Amino acid sequence: MRRSLVAICFLLSAGCTAVPEPTATTMPAPTRASPTPSATQTPPPPPTATGQACLSLPGQVIVDEYIDSDLPRSIPYRVYLPPCYEEDASRPYPVLVLLHGLQLTDSQWDDLGIDETADALIRRAAIPPVVIVMPWERKGLDFEQAIVAKLLPHIRSAYAGGGDRTTTAIGGISRGAGWALRIGLKHPDEFGAIGLHSPAVLSPDLYYLGDWIKAAEPMGVPRLWIDFADRDTSRASALELAMALEEFGATFASSSAPGEHTGTYWSSRLEDYLTWYASGWAGSLMR
Q: HEC states along the chain?
């Protein structure tokens, strides 16, 4: 690892700061505390569905598409609605946007088992009920604007009720993590957390990273987490990103666990992913 860091530092030229060694854990272990938005008063924690009979039933995944005359193409998406949703559809729900990897579709997170994992965690009251939207990146769309200006408002209006950045997160796998980083940092007014799972970030995004972080500081840089497998093909990219974040003064959590850049690894980490996202929601929702 140390040799890898030295090599990357050399490629990035002088001034590179080494990143602490990620630790292999079954739960994400922050190397630094990530900032969360402050508030003068903390609302009570959101109610959970614990104890309701409907918890024995699974949540549902709806396959749909968003059509808008302003868009050249529709946005296909899947949306997960938690157990007991129909019992209390009017309450505000946290929203988690999850982006797929390169050349995949909105089915990736569904295929990995995100709905079953969310069901299990909600039943144990390990996370609050959450609405999860999984859009499909299609050619011909400005993906960033399609999500922020069109899809996210639609999801809040149709499924999740009122909400703000404190209960809205975005994450992605591989190239989807690169999109999540770009979208989340450029729109800190919309997203309070960014999850980067085996991130593959393009060089142009690294070039603008410092500007995005600086512009986000008045609102509050979203919480960040980088996670990758110990034999991940995107390992070098993840370490390069971590060093860039440190260089620009951004705090973030990081972790690594045994595995490769495969669905088997990401599926094994779903509980950790959802638990981390939800850790920023406690006390942020009111009826």
A: CHHHHHHHHHHHCCCCCCCCCCCECCCCCCCCCCCCCCCCCCCCCCCCCCCCHHHHCCCEEEEEEECCCCCCCCEEEEEEECCCHHHCCCCCCCEEEEECCCCCCCHHHHHHCHHHHHHHHHHCCCCCCCEEEEECCCCCCCHHHHHHHHHHHHHHHHHHCCCCHHHEEEEEECHHHHHHHHHHHHCCCCCCEEEEECCCCCHHHHHHHHHHHHHHCCCCCCEEEEEEECCCCCHHHHHHHHHHHHHCCCCCEEEEECCCCCHHHHHHCHHHHHHHHHCCCCCCCCC
Q: What is the pLDDT of residues 109-166, one digit of tens each?
A: 999 999 999 999 999 999 999 999 999 998 889 999 999 999 999 999 999 888 899 9
Query: Does residue 190 contact residue 221 with C-beta atoms inside 8 Å?
Result: no
Rounded Cα distance, 178 and 203, in Å: 10
The parts of the chain modelled with pLDDT lower than 70 are 1-51, 283-287
